[in-house]
Amino acid sequence: MHQTTNTNARQYILKCQEFNGAKNTRSDNNYAVSGRRVGHLYAVYSYGHWPMYVCDTRTDTWFRNSERASPTTSKQSSQCYPTGKDCAPLPTEELQKMLDWAVSFWNQLGYNIVLQKTNNPCAQCPRTRRQVRRQTQ
Q1: CA distances (Å), 101 to each of 56, 80, 124, 136, in order?
Q2: CA-to-CA distance for 7 and 103, rounded, in angstroms?
């Protein structure tokens, strides 16, 4: 897994490579920004749970979260914007449905992709969060 700064994360995002950004102990996965593969989708998360961008890697189709974010997440979003890509706006719920569908699809094919609930709900978002973790058999 690549470790990088938030400002240098874009190089991994454009290649849909998994990475961890700056450390942040208050986040769900201990990183302020992270990129994860979920089957054929690639998701860029803020604080381990809020999808900022999702890419369908089969078609190179990008989506961005259209919902209002905190000032720090807004800054991360601008630092991580996939330059040169046209990102269709979708609400968080729709992005999460895409990711949930991908988990279901790939698990039916024999992969073991888990959306794991975390024990550290973010102060910005009090509801229980899920962190993506992929394990292959």
Answers
A1: 12, 24, 26, 17
A2: 29
The token pair at 102 is 């991908």
pLDDT for the residue 48? 79
Burial class (CB in 10 A: 0-12, 13-18, 19+), 70: middle
Tokens 């968080």 sit at which residue? Answer: 92
Nearest to 82 by CA among 110, 56, 49, 48: 56
What's the number of domains the chain is made of?
Answer: 1
- Between CA 44 and CA 36 the distance in angstroms is 6
pTM for this prediction: 0.76
CA distances from 60 to 7, 13, 41, 89, 120 (A): 22, 12, 10, 15, 32
Angle at 43 between CA 40 and CA 48, to 5 degrees: 135
Interval 59-85: pLDDT, tens: 999 999 999 888 988 998 999 999 999
Among the ranges given (5-19, 22-36, 76-90, 114-128), the one the predictor scored with the smallest mean pLDDT: 114-128
